[in-house]
Amino acid sequence: MQDFYNFFIVNKVIFQSLLIVVVAYIAINLSKKIFYKIGFVDKPNKRSNHKKPIALGGGIITIPLIIIISSMLGFKWEFYFLISICILFVVSILDDIMNINPIPRLFFHFLSVALFVFYYIFPQLNIIIKENLTLLLISTFFLLMGITWFINAFNFMDGIDGITSIEVISICISLLILNYLLGKELNVLLMTTLLVMVVFCYFNWMPARIFLGDAGSIPLGLLSISFLVDMAIEGYWMVALILPLYYLLDTSVTLFVRIIKKKKFWKPHSEHFYQQALRNGLTHSNISKKVLIINFGLTSLSFFSFIYKNNLIFFILGIIWCSIFLYIFSENKKS
């Protein structure tokens, strides 16, 4: 096993990290200009949280950057994991361009998640659960449904400047630290994702000059869940539940409220708590900074759940912590 700090010195990872940042900056900046020139922009509508057209192709450049750079730095992609990412990427690009009907879009989401579950997670689950076929089938069903929901939740939450960048960065930093505490080697894909998203956050921060689009948020959802699944398989499943808890609670509570109110919950809307906060007077940067504070709290709780392995109290505290901010976001400060 390589020492974490020795890895940086021997393998010149600091230089490689700086190179990733420079390449990502140049690529995103150039592509942004191209997207504006060709008119590939997100035009404001009644649900929009911006008032002027913004370049939409952030995902078109960030996802290939993550795949190509991580591969060049030696990350060995599982074939079906890469295929799953590519399916989501292509379908999401088409959705950004022509607004695909939800049914075929969800079909391809399920297809990519099924490939990910059966060829990436299933073999590892089979080793853990061993010969308990019933438990294996139940776990597989919930994984299929849960991961499909997760990647769509990532998309639903990508509605204001900086928010998804902050979410991905928070998850990546937390897991890098926890992997070090576990004595694991540096995860090249995790580090590459972190650095590319830090650069993207610079362009996506208020006032945003480029958006991720579905082509970014959906594949990033699968990338993020893959990092969390790896931690869960290590035995720290509470960490995997706590870190993305704000995103999961905002989307799940919003969906539940819309169902209770007998609204067409499958229709696009702007009723998420972070969107309410925007209407209630907070700016994009105010909300994203609060999400950063939320994630700092969740990271702290995940570390405690790591130390006191999978103690449920930290998950409950995480729900309470996020609920406080959901209430703050929903408060009407204009009245």
Describe the model.
With 335 residues, this protein is mostly helical. The protein has a domain at 4-235. It is 74% helix and 1% strand. The chain has 14 helices and two strands. The protein has a two-stranded antiparallel ribbon. Helix 3 (58-72) packs across helix 9 (214-233) and helix 6 (133-157) runs antiparallel to helix 9. The longest helix has 28 residues, at 102-129. It is globular and about 55 Å long.
Task: Give the arrangement of secondary structure elements.
Elements: H1 4-10, H2 13-38, E1 41-42, E2 54-55, H3 58-72, H4 79-98, H5 102-129, H6 133-157, H7 163-181, H8 188-204, H9 214-233, H10 237-242, H11 245-260, H12 273-279, H13 284-307, H14 312-330
Antiparallel strand pairs: 1-2
Helix pairs in contact: 2-3, 2-8, 3-8, 3-9, 4-5, 4-9, 5-6, 6-9, 6-11, 7-8, 7-9, 7-13, 11-14, 12-14, 13-14
